[in-house]
Amino acid sequence: MSKNRLEAFSDGVIAILITIMVLELKVPRGEDLRALAPLLPVFLAYLLSYLNIGIYWNNHHHMLHATSRIDGAVLWANLHFLFWLSLVPFTTGWMGENHFGPWPTALYGAVLLGAALAYLILQRAIIAGQGEGSKLASAVGRDLKGKLSAGLYVLALPLAFVRQYAADAIYVLVALLWLVPDRRIESRLRE
To answer: pTM for the complete prediction?
Structure first.
């Protein structure tokens, strides 16, 4: 099967998710900068989520660019991945509106963990269809960065209940680890 419909559908879902998140930023009452202060937690949560969704979109694009064909397993794995991303706007809003409280922070981390695991499953489904000698399999290797990210999310979950800002720092750290597009895939595509 061609990958074009999968790419177009995924891009559309991701664009909608970003739009939904920005609509959660309500216009404050008041005309001075103090009116923006109550929105700071909401904006910071939005910024982190925008960054995370942007990172996933970028890496998803690279991964599919290294893919020549897809099958039903990849379609379902992609839907599973998009399911977890679709929960990001809700958890972002809850976390921002409640000033990064323990439960919202933990649920946000659980959704990030779900998205990370779903991305790894999608990656494995593509490699299974392409073969272990494919460009993607070669580029990804053992994918220590992907596994490290999931491990950090697991660490952040209990931290959210004792030191929620430490959990939030882990979420930021993982995003920073992925901020630069996955050069492993880019280098394999140039070969």
So the answer is: 0.92
